[in-house]
């Protein structure tokens, strides 16, 4: 404004002695003087306003400006920049809010100062102070860089505080899944492990009828084993109100039993089932026992038949021992146009059972009250045959003859409603038994159990978890009277070891297991050629009749060594087996437990030897220990003990090669 006025204001009129030129120069000098005064005044005002630090910074800038002006080298700029940055760094490290405020103020002041300087510069330009365009640009760039750095550092420090960044998920540590068993699995009814010291007289069991007590005593059973003491009353209790309703009027609970091999599980279900059914009036299939093999079905059928003797109950076996037509005839008959059931208790293998369900119209399961699944873990594994779903469908079959005639209609269990509770239905109660019952709830779920109740002798791990997270396998209970050994050996020495056990150690009768029927047969032929021992083989090479005869002879003591595949590993109850030898180490712990369980049965003592090759030792021993074995001892057979048999053995091996060759060409 003053400049504008300058152009038009001509000043005071002096006397005529002063020339026009000198007057205008004087006027210019006056104006310059005024401009300088104004500049000084505004500077002092600013100094008063700014804190000391800002003044210092300003001075630094001014000094830098001056340096910039005086120097032409570009590297100086770089150096200066690096000198300025630490100021911001220092500031940015200080996270306090007031500092930020101060910075903003400082920035604002610097901005006004810059503008002022710009406007002043035009005056200064008049007073020979030069600020080039380039310098101004550099200065602005420098300030922008500083500003950016400042913003950066401010963002870095302030972003996390108080704001939720949408879409940003924190990496939370993944919590370990704590496996929890259902209560019925975690807290079972405990079965005592020690048979001998927990025997209970048969007459002491409440609810057991006198004829059965007498029959038991006649069969040489004076005391019940622990599993029988627990399970027999539990099954009887569930039928106290009759066959139709369980305790308190509810559907009876299913029962699962996990107890060691040879602990007497068979009688634990045979006795109560016989007692409950012996009062029946009309003959219908009310109990069905399913077992994995013919031999086992035969064995259980024998026990049922023995205790059904003297009652009107009829026991029928469906395991393919007889022809289908013969089995059909034993199940039902037609008289006067009416079908009559001839069986109260059916003992079956899954395959033959399904055949009768599908092809035999005379086979009716609509009155079934007890479904007994023995060797339950094995039967769960064979569930791919869908035998259970077929049984359940047959049990709840609708629209059949019996439904129209029967006063009791039956429908598959579903939601409880007033309608579903009346009229009363015949409940289906499942009874599961095994020495190696799985604790895997998912597997057990396949059985569709109703409020199951578990009886178990495995106390050590009956906690809340099925197994420790690091534990790879289930734990089982081993028979009390069993002593386990492993014998380190080589492949070629195995037959010599068997000979040593029978001829030197006199351990017979021995039940010896191989992993294949070929190995069983080769060993059998080899020992026959060697001579001196009475051996037999037991595998699918034999017909069912031959197998039955062989087992009988072995039990009678006519066979010293029975060489078997796993066909005889499960459930088979052979009296008087002193010793089991695993000629081939079993691959799975369940196989091991069932094999060695053929000895030390019913509280008696027994020995189990496992021949181990060097490479098998570590894994096998670990598997056995993890399964809960009380201890497996090392048994070394010295080479000198085998020496006297070696020459004959070498000769026999050559003969064996010829015999096997002949057999193959035949
Ligand atoms: N109370 C008892 N008194 C005497 N002997 C018994 C008694 N209960 C069962 N036994 C006998 O004990 C042996 C083993 O019984 P059982 O076959 O029922 O065992 P298990 O538990 O079913 O074995 P596995 O799991 O191997 O099938 C049989 O010879 C049986 O006769």
UniProtKB/TrEMBL annotation:
Q: Where is the composition biased (Acidic residues)?
A: 140-152
Class of the enzyme per the UniProt entry, highest EC level: hydrolase
User: Domain Helicase ATP-binding spans what residues?
Assistant: 246-455
Gene3D superfamilies linked: P-loop containing nucleotide triphosphate hydrolases
SMART domains, alphabetized? DEXDc, HELICc
An example of a GO molecular function for this protein is:
RNA binding
SUPFAM superfamilies to which the protein is assigned, alphabetical: P-loop containing nucleoside triphosphate hydrolases (SSF52540)
Q: Where is the composition biased (Polar residues)?
A: 42-59
- Annotated spans, Disordered: 30-160
Keyword Transmembrane helix carried by entry: no
Q: Where is the composition biased (Basic and acidic residues)?
A: 66-75, 90-118
UniProt keyword list: ATP-binding, Helicase, Hydrolase, Nucleotide-binding, RNA-binding
The EC code for this enzyme is 3.6.4.13
Q: Where is the Helicase C-terminal domain?
A: 497-643
Task: Quickly give the catalysed reaction.
Answer: ATP + H2O = ADP + phosphate + H(+)
Q: Which domain of life is it from?
A: Eukaryota
Q: Does the keyword Cytoplasm apply?
A: no
Domain free text: The Q motif is unique to and characteristic of the DEAD box family of RNA helicases and controls ATP binding and hydrolysis.
PANTHER family noted in UniProt? RNA HELICASE
Q: What does this protein do?
A: ATP-binding RNA helicase involved in the biogenesis of 60S ribosomal subunits. RNA helicase.
Q: Which family does it belong to?
A: Belongs to the DEAD box helicase family. DDX51/DBP6 subfamily.
Q: State the name under which the record lists this protein.
A: ATP-dependent RNA helicase
**Species for this entry:** Lates calcarifer
Highest classification ranks of the organism: Eukaryota, Metazoa, Chordata, Craniata, Vertebrata
């Amino acid at each position: 404004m003053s400049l504008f006025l300058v152009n038009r204001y001509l000043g005071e009129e002096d006397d005529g002695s002063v020339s026009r030129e000198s007057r205008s120069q004087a006027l210019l000098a006056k104006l310059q003087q005024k401009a300088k005064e104004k500049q000084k005044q505004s500077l002092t005002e600013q100094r008063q306003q700014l804190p000391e630090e800002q003044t210092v910074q300003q001075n630094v800038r001014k000094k830098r400006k001056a340096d910039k002006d005086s120097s032409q080298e570009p590297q100086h700029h770089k150096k200066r920049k690096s000198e300025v940055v630490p100021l911001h760094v220092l500031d940015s490290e200080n996270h306090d809010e007031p500092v930020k405020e101060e910075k903003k103020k400082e920035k604002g002041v610097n901005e006004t100062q810059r503008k002022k300087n710009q406007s002043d510069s035009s005056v200064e330009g008049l007073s020979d102070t030069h600020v080039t365009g380039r310098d101004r640009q550099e200065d602005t760039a420098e300030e922008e860089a500083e500003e950016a750095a400042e913003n950066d550092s401010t963002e870095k420090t302030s972003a996390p505080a108080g704001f939720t960044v949408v879409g940003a998920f924190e990496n939370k540590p993944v919590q370990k899944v704590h496996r929890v068993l259902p209560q019925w699995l975690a807290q079972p009814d405990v079965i005592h492990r020690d048979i001998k010291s927990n025997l209970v007289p048969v007459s002491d069991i409440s609810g057991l009828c006198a004829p059965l007590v007498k029959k038991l005593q006649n069969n040489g059973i004076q005391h019940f084993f622990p599993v029988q003491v627990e399970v027999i009353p539990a099954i009887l209790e569930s039928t106290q109100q009759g066959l139709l309703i369980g305790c308190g009027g509810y559907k009876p609970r299913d029962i699962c039993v996990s107890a060691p091999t040879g602990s007497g599980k068979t009688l634990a279900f045979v006795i109560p089932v016989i007692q409950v059914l012996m009062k029946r009036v009309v003959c219908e299939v009310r109990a069905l026992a399913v077992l994995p093999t013919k031999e086992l079905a035969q064995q259980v059928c024998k026990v049922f038949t023995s205790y059904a003797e003297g009652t009107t109950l009829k026991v029928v076996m469906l395991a393919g021992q007889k022809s289908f037509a013969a089995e059909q005839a034993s199940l039902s008959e037609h008289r006067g146009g009416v079908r009559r059931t001839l069986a109260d208790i059916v003992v079956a293998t899954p395959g033959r059972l399904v055949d009768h369900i599908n092809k035999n119209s005379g086979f009716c399961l609509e009155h079934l009250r007890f479904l007994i699944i023995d060797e339950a873990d094995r039967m769960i594994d064979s569930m791919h045959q869908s035998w259970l779903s077929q049984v359940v469908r047959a049990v709840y079959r609708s629209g059949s003859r019996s439904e129209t005639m029967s006063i009791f209609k039956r429908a598959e269990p579903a939601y409880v409603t007033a309608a579903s509770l009346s009229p009363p239905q015949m409940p289906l109660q499942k009874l599961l038994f095994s020495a190696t019952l799985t604790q895997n709830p998912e597997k057990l779920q396949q059985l569709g159990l109703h409020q199951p109740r578990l009886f178990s002798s495995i106390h050590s791990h009956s906690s809340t978890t099925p197994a420790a997270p690091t534990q790879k396998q289930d734990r089982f209970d081993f028979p009390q009277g069993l002593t386990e050994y492993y014998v380190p050996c080589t492949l070629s020495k195995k037959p010599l070891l068997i000979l040593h056990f029978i001829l030197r150690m006199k351990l017979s009768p021995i039940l010896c297991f191989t992993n294949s029927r070929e190995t069983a047969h080769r060993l059998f032929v080899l020992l026959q050629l060697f001579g001196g021992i009475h051996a037999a083989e037991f595998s699918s090479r034999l017909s069912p009749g031959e197998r039955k005869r062989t087992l009988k002879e072995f039990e009678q003591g006519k066979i010293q060594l029975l060489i078997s595949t796993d066909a005889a590993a499960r459930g088979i109850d052979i009296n008087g087996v002193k010793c089991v030898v695993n000629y081939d180490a079993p691959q799975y712990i369940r196989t091991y437990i069932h094999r060695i369980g053929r000895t030390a049965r019913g509280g008696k003592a027994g020995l189990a030897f496992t021949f181990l090759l060097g490479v098998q030792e570590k894994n096998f021993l670990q598997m056995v220990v993890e399964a809960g074995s009380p201890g497996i001892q090392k048994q070394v057979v010295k080479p000198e003990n085998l020496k006297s048999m070696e020459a004959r053995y070498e000769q026999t091996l050559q003969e064996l090669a010829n015999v096997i060759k002949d057999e193959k060409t035949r």
